[in-house]
Write a structure and sequence with these properties.
mainly beta, elongated, Porin, 13 strands, 13-stranded antiparallel sheet, disordered N terminus, 2 helices
């Protein structure tokens, strides 16, 4: 049941041509086009839509908390990274469109614990603790409208739009810690973690909305920006149809996936180069004289009426 990267969902096949058409149309009407690189770090938060478990209580053998997942909060999840390109299509000095396709890795974790207690001897028990760390690797396709407020060489901006993520691969690491207590003496053992392929447990794509703000600095031949954005997933990232597909995880780790949505906070450094600028309409038609300059000193961009 391994998912292939080349099997893009029907939604993606229909959405991508329209996205390319929109970007082409905007580029033709833009006064400035900025192209550059973007990279940074991100943190992911899980939101449980519906819980699922393979554990049933049998008298006093299982503790009451058996099978309960404890999800890590946003800042305690593993930090991950993203990198890609950034294209800004500026209709004027205030309004524009931003498209920033990137490769991104999102990571999140949860913990479960199971305890067996002796029915005869209370001091004898075995506790199994599992830490599940998931890493999802995506192609991100975020598209946003941007409003900028030029203040000389400093340009603060806000932006908002939607994103569509295509999953390339999913991995899960399960670390097991076994604590045995006999006659008041406890011994602990850990396996150091075992990696499992998790492609089939997650949907091939998911989507949501995002918003952010940043501060750009016009340095003449380059524009640098510090950008912060928040992504709010609207669709489930988990594949419920394959929830019980891996008997090894269900039987040995006593765990199946919940229905999850994801939230993600990204902090990025962006480096832009202007690749063209438009002049005034010529010959009485709505055509622009386009000059291709890389790099180009943006402080010299003075248009005549």
């Amino acid at each position: 049941m391994h998912q292939s990267f080349y099997k893009i969902s029907p939604l993606a096949k229909h959405a991508l041509p329209w996205l390319l058409l929109l970007l082409t149309s905007m580029a033709a009407q833009s006064q400035n086009i900025l192209v550059g690189l973007k990279g940074g770090v991100n943190q992911t938060q899980t939101v449980v839509v519906a819980s699922h478990s393979v554990v049933n209580h049998l008298g006093n053998v299982f503790s009451e908390e058996a099978g309960t997942k404890i999800y890590q909060p946003l800042m305690e999840n593993p930090r991950s990274w993203h990198a890609g390109v950034s294209v800004n299509l500026e209709a004027n000095q205030f309004l524009g469109l931003s498209f920033e396709p990137a490769f991104a890795s999102w990571q999140f974790a949860w913990q479960t614990s199971h305890t067996w207690r002796s029915l005869e001897l209370v001091e004898q028990q075995v506790n199994l603790q599992y830490r599940h760390t998931n890493a999802l690797h995506f192609i991100e396709l975020p598209l946003a409208a941007r409003f900028s407020l030029p203040l000389g060489p400093v340009i603060p901006y806000v932006q908002g739009g939607g994103f569509f993520n295509i999953m390339l691969a999913g991995n899960r690491n399960i670390e097991t810690t076994r604590v045995e207590q006999v006659n008041g003496t406890a011994r602990s053992f850990s396996d150091g973690g075992v990696n499992y392929g998790a492609d089939d447990f997650f949907n091939k794509n998911f989507y949501g909305v995002f918003g952010g703000a940043g501060l750009a600095f016009d340095m003449g031949y380059v524009r640098m920006a510090l950008d912060v954005s928040y992504r709010h997933g609207l669709s489930k990232v988990t594949n419920g149809g394959n929830r019980y597909a891996d008997a090894k995880v269900a039987d040995l780790a006593f765990d199946v996936m919940d229905d999850l949505q994801l939230r993600n906070v990204q902090v990025s450094l962006v480096c832009h180069f202007p690749v063209n600028f438009g002049g005034a309409p010529t010959n009485g038609k709505n055509r622009r004289k386009t000059k291709y300059v890389l790099p180009y000193d943006m402080r010299r961009d003075k248009r005549k009426p």
